[in-house]
Amino acid sequence: xxxxxxxxxxxxxxTQTLQVINLFKQDFEIIYLTANNNVELLIxxxxxxxxxxxxxxxxxxxxxxxxxxxxLNCKIISGRAGLLEIASCNEIDICVNALVGSSGMEPTxxxxxxxxDVALSNKESMVMAGEYINKLKYKNNCSIYPVDSEHSAIxxxxxxxxxxxxxxxxxxxxxxxxxxxxxxxxxxITISEALNHPNWTMGKKxxxxxxxxxxxxxxxxxxxxxxxxxxxxxxxxxHPQSIIHSMVEFIDGSIKAQLGTPNMKIPIQYAxxxxxxxxxxxxxxxxxxxxxxxxxxxxxxxxxxxELAYYAMNAGNSFSVVLNVxxxxxxxxxxxxxxxxxxxxxxxxxxxxKHPVSAVNDLETIEELTIWxxxxxxxxx
Length: 381
What we know:
4-stranded mixed sheet, globular
């Protein structure tokens, strides 16, 4: 039985992880659950799964959590410090990092420092600190299991293959809700329109990232570090049906692809059950019913964030950190009606242009860049 800890158990990936575990109760034990703010759902989950540790980051909710779990034999931890402490817990086999945004990076680091394998949904960890995290992974003999559908697809396609024979990794993306929308009308895009993804059901932040296609840009940077491959070998192709989740092309011209329904529980399950595929009851893929699969090049004039991500990846140093943090804050500003949709890319680019470029060799530098970028965006929204 594998012992599991879930960082961000009340979010989209966290709740779907628990749905997977429900299907294989005999194979997994929940050791800890954490939430940022949703104490009501955290209480419900804790009563159902009876974890040893429960963490709520919002300290104003501690009293409510303590009262409701008074009959449960668990230790309650709170605050950002509590989250970082629980991420270091070495009583588990796998930490599922389902946290959203830049705040998920340091917990990934703490889990790896503790020698724990990480099922990683938080792409920002690799975007901001990929080189540092890889060093920790090797130093502590840990593994990182990709949870993003695209990286899970590549991971599966590369099993048993010689990395020297890779010609390119091909990340697929649906193009989001605005694939066919005229760029001239982007400033009129509403929050509800941007949150209406045609294929996937996700949290608000990643859904907006899909609408700007920043999600795909960040995935390119993540792929560079996850698979330790040079940037020129990573491509993006738009695939509106979201059936092919990514592909690998080899030097002999052959291409391997991983297909499946657009269901995040499938890559979550594989990250938990690796190296085995467990029989599940998720909807099966019916290609005859789908009929056809289509592809097109991404329009980087319309989706500027893709271009920004490639620039950051190639420039190295502090550019990826600043882009990631800027995007966290501009998406939040858009969701709070402080800026227009097309301002997200504009402000992300401006932060990259104006930031103090520096080498990123430690967490202290990342923290300094994070503070600078947050202040820079805050002054402009």
